[in-house]
TrEMBL record, chain A:
It comes from the Archaea. The keyword Metal-binding does not apply. InterPro entries: AAA+_ATPase, CHLI-like, ChlI/MoxR_AAA_lid, Mg_chelatse_chII-like_cat_dom. Keywords: ATP-binding, Nucleotide-binding. The keyword ATP-binding applies. It comes from Methanospirillum hungatei. This is AAA family ATPase.
Automatic annotation (TrEMBL), chain B:
This is VWA domain-containing protein. It comes from Methanospirillum hungatei. It holds the Pfam family MCM. Residues 278-343 are annotated as: Disordered. GO terms for molecular function: ATP binding; DNA binding. Coiled coil: none annotated. Residues 438-618 form the VWFA domain. CDD domains: vWA_Magnesium_chelatase.
Amino acid sequence: MKDEIIVFPFSAIVGQQDMKDALLANIIYPSIGGVLIRGEKGTAKSTTVRAAADLLPEREVMKGCIFRCEIRDPRNLCETCREKIAQGENPVSEYTRMRVVELPLCATEDRVAGTLDIEHAITKGIKKFEPGVLAMANGNILYVDEVNLLDDHIVDLLLDAAAMGVNFVEREGISYSHPARFLLVGTMNPEEGDLRPQLLDRFGLVVDVEGEKDNRERSEIVKRRLNFERDPVVFCTSFQAEQQAIRDHIIRAKQIIAELRPDDLLINTAVKISLSLGVDGHRSDITLVKTALAFAALDGRKVVNCNDVIKAAGLSLPHRMRRRPFEESSMDFAAVRGIIESCYESS
Amino acid sequence: MNHLFPFTEITGQEHAKKALLCALVCDDIRSILILGNPGTAKSALVRSVETLTDRKKVITIPQNVTYDRLLGTIDLEKVITSGNMHVHPGILQEGNNQILYADDINLMDEGVIQSILSTSETGQYLLEREGLSRMISTRFTFLASMDPAEGELSSGQMDRFDLCIRTDQITETGMRAEIIRKALSFEHSPDAFVLGCEKETDDLKKNIQAAKERFLYVSIPDGHADLISSLCIELAVQGYRGDIAVARTAKALAALDRRDEVIFDDIKLAALFALEHRRGDRQDRPPHPPHSEKEERPEQDSDKNRSEKQNQPDTRSDDQIGEQDKKNQEKNQIPTPPPDRYFDIGSPFEVIRYLDENTWQVTQKQKSGRRSRVISSDSSGHYRSFRYPGRCRNDIAVDATIRAAAPYQRIRNRNGLAISVKKTDIREKVREKKIAHTILFLVDASGSMGVQKRMVAVKGAILSLLNDAYQKRDRVGLMIFRGDSADLLLPPTRSPELAAKLLKAIPTGGKTPLLKGLTEGYLLLTRGKYAAPGENKSIVLLTDGRGNMPLTNKAPGEELALIARKITGTGVRFVVVDTESGFPRLDRARILARDLNGSYFRLEDLSIHGLAGCVNELMYSER
């Protein structure tokens, strides 16, 4: 039963530009903080996220490290890697693909946080930590489908780890911690119940997706799906060139973003928006700036333009507006747009 | 020897049979939901599918299946003997290349439903449980059945089903007689019966096999493909699952009919199978209550009626809206002349603990969230974690016990055993039971509630209570009574957001059928889905207690008291929120609360900031 499930190619997904852009922005600039994809059932939310796995870039990590610690990120190394460096060992690196680690709803606490390695314990009689999903997720994308249905105690684990970037395990006589910095990607259908505000705030961007209303686009979606079902291998081969183009695009954008710094205009615009909306905290400002930079980079530009900021505002602000659970979103997007436009026009 | 009732001999239910055949032809039709009243051959149909395939078995998923059994768990024997991790396969894996069947799926645990449906869709699932981490591939056809009167699935869950069909009550006498004859003759001598229809079964099998091969070459002409999309857009089908399911099904139907090209009729029938349960154009209407649906549906000839509607799917919605309008008009015009008024929602406030949580047998301090999650004391519920055992050690967490024992195996004398477990290693399972808390808001929307814009405050209060329910993640329903009816605007759901939306549109006006509201609300919570034992059920009744629509010829007050006493002590808690205002006060709601043996609050008491609220809370905490 080892038959690989072939994933529908990202480049074959019709429409849903916002969702794709938000994912790509996060891939090239992970500190944007993840994305929540909210929307109608059956609008290719999960399909798109799973498809993104095929596009993920490579990372340079410590060789042999189970947490795949990033070699250029000395502040977030696991104990073993830190010891190695402290003992003067010259770090050896290897390249590994960033990947999508899935957190299923049925996951038990021990599998999420990690637990004692039972096999090792029985055969060797030595206690050893067996990493869980949070360890796998380090440096990768952590994907939760139907994130709003996640059990409370798992959400707590997730929030703790996400807030600290570290997973602490204290159980079964094991005391252990390891880096757990991941890109949180969630999908949900709001009709099935809402997300706890704490968890909502963990997501850098929120995309609301809708089904395509255009007749021709919809037929195209059906056609592609049926072709895929009929012969997935042939179908994927026919999209190979497009897939490679997106991969190259990501690599290019990553290079640009590494050098890109926000200019004063962008920062001032972000501040103006926040002040006018009365948002608490600075998380939304920072996310807005980062996302605008990412959009510019994705477009191959080194200069952020007005449209980048407008698009970034639409994805990074609405879910951070203080609102009571049943109030309609209180954000006046036209006003925000106006602010951005006037900032960029007067410059 | 086959003792299953043969598929070919099932009388009627042509649609259901067609849909099942489609799933046998097209492997990508992976899930079918069968709706129907009890005794409409739902499970007989499903089981009979086995007679059409030589290799596939129908495996039933038990109602109270645990995650261990469903997804798989540690194979202890192998772990102990070999020292390596082994998975003991769960039902989903055993069902690979088979047919899985869940009866009464609407009564199953939500997480379980979710796991089955997403596995059937993606053909794989990730097992992250109890030390195991495996991606497991399994492809099965999932068949589920339910009686919608017992409660519904959420629209998201419905959408996951590729096809949804309804089994009909057969009303034609000839057919009914035939059913009896066949059933008796099958019972009398199953072998002979099966033998008698062997040829038919074989022919059908051959046809399925041929259709399976043909399916790959069936094409959908471009014009027809566009028709599918425009149909979905017109019916406001969310997402693309509907479009894709119609296309697959139409192709399967064409293949079954020995054609290489999809024709209009295929799409028509496929749309009935794949879109009826996904229609979005009915969402503005409140989701139909299970019991009133029966009243709306014409008793006789439902089959014919349905096929007529199916012929013109686009006109159906108009018809329905028309009916609904007419019904509304009747409601509004006959009883009282003053027109309905629509009031705004008053400002929401923070709610006191009106549901007095202490009485809910909560044995664990809640950090936040759900008020009704309980660590169960027996061995029911999900295995969540483990602990050092208490006095009795019946529910041993074997995996945790082995983990505890494992590190000492080298130093312990095992006496020839594979593993030596000492008393101190033993861990006990901590099981968690989710006790659903269902709150039905029963709202008096009669004319008297419009006095001094009382309804504004009432709506504000409901919104606040909903907000509270939202934070505690209760299941809430909303029922209003006015004129001469009690209407379930929202069957209990976990999305109070929906309730809040409906709140705005509650009209006010007409007489006060308090008795009717009370009985309907009570019946809703005490039968079908919401009647499950162990669930917490509350009715929050917002009224001024001035009922004026007696059901019998007794005096209204007397009648109310009688009914009230009858329905107390049967598991439903009552909270009466008195909306009476002005002077003199009649205190009828207070009397009703007493008769119902429920809690009583005045509207103003509910706010945590109100003086009265503080006093009330003090009283509660002292008790």
